[in-house]
Amino acid sequence: MNLKPKKYLLLDLDGVCYGKHNNYSLERVFGQVSMRMTKFISEKLKINEIKAKELQTNYFYKYNTSLRGLMIHDGISPDEFLSYVHKIDLSFMKEDKIMRNELEKLDMKKFIFTNGSADHAKNILTHLGVYDLFERDKIFDIKDAGYIPKPEAKTFDLMVKKFGINPKETIYVEDIAKNLSIGKD
Fold this sequence. Notes:
The protein is of the alpha/beta class. The protein has helices spanning 26-45, 49-63, 66-74, 78-85, 97-105, 118-128, 153-163, 177-184, and strands at 8-11, 109-113, 139-140, 170-173. Helix 6 links the parallel strand 2 and strand 3.
């Protein structure tokens, strides 16, 4: 592929910036996040963890994030939720010098587009040793999206506006197919 006409690189965070390619299992990160979500839902809604996990899963499939369903149906504060669920141990995650080297070679502006929080992105990218290539102004998170997750078209429009990018000049790397189809449109 000729990358010359492309000026921007847009990366999803989870599953793209780390995963099998650098031996960091998504399960290791998402396992912690998921357990914390279940615990948060159980405690906030005063339901057992089995029912909390069912609700978490149902909301994820219906609204593309569990958070969106919790906001709509249960009045959950998004900031409180995100702060709680993203307090995870990433001590196993080390700098990815190969990824850093490859990103530095690209003569493109680089951005992160995530349904997670900016704090979560900063934590991951710092552990990977590449946060300085992005920093906060190059991260579009769920808060920037008004808590409306990908793949909503409005969220893509907000991201394009924030970054001031032309989608036709952008390479978008995403691990969830439905997010790619909306991104292409």
